[in-house]
Amino acid sequence: MSKLVLGKMIFLFSYLRLFHLMIICLAGISIAIFVMPAQAERVRNSVATFLGLDKITGRMVTFDIYINETYQFGTLKVTPRVCYTSSKDEAARVDGFVEVNEITLDQKIQRIFTGWVFADSPGLNAVEHPIYDIWLKNCK
User: Fold this and answer.
1) What average pLDDT is seen over the chain?
2) What is the β-pairing status of strands 76-85 and 94-103?
3) Whether pLDDT at 5 is above 70
4) Cα-only R_g, the chain
5) CA 60 → CA 55, 73, 106, 125, 129, distances in Å?
6) Distance from the CA of 65 to the CA of which of 58, 114, 117, 133 falls in 20 to 30 A?
7) Cβ-contact 49, 63 below 8 angstroms
8) Of 135, 138, 137, whose CA–CA distance to 52 is shortest?
9) How much is the average pLDDT of 70-80?
10) What are the φ and ψ backbone dihedral angles of 129, each rounded to 5 degrees?
């Protein structure tokens, strides 16, 4: 066999091998997309449990609030809008959407926080206040 024919055969073999690897990769990706288990549904709960800390007195209070109800902790009014937990077959996750208002000295209500809070990462979206800390603890 001449070197030219042998070179062309090696070149053709390399392309066929590359094409074969691409087919295998595409098949693997499509299997991964269609066979992956669906993410389990989050469970919507009717009660959110919070932990409150008064930084001046050191007093810690656990309180339950029904969704869309308001609880007053010191000068803060806490209103959970939704509270989710993961389903029983998943790792425990608790998150909720909360609104926190402060009653000012002149009796006006000022929104100081609106957003998602996560029980396993309380510092991620924390309620910033000089006297009080509030964390989502659980949902029921």
Assistant:
1) 83
2) antiparallel
3) no
4) 28
5) 9, 11, 26, 20, 15
6) 58
7) yes
8) 135
9) 97
10) -150, 140
HEC string for the chain: CCHHHHHHHHHHHHHHHHHHHHHHHHHHHHHHHHHCCCCCCCEECCEEEEEEEECCCCCEEEEEEECCCCEEECCEEEEEEEEEECCCCCCCCEEEEEEEEEECCCCCEEEEEEEEEECCCCCCCCCCCCCEEEEEEEEC
Written as six digits, the tokens of 96 are 């909720």
Beta-carbon neighbour count of residue 18 at 10 Å? Answer: 10
Task: Tell me the backbone φ, ψ of residue 132, rounded to 5 degrees.
Answer: -120, 145
Length of the chain: 140
CA dist., res. 49 & res. 140, Å (int): 8
Joined tokens for residue 88: 């029983």
pLDDT at position 19 is 54
107 dihedral zone (left: phi>0; alpha: psi -120 to 50; beta): left
pTM: 0.69
Do the beta carbons of residue 98 and residue 81 sit within 8 Å?
A: yes
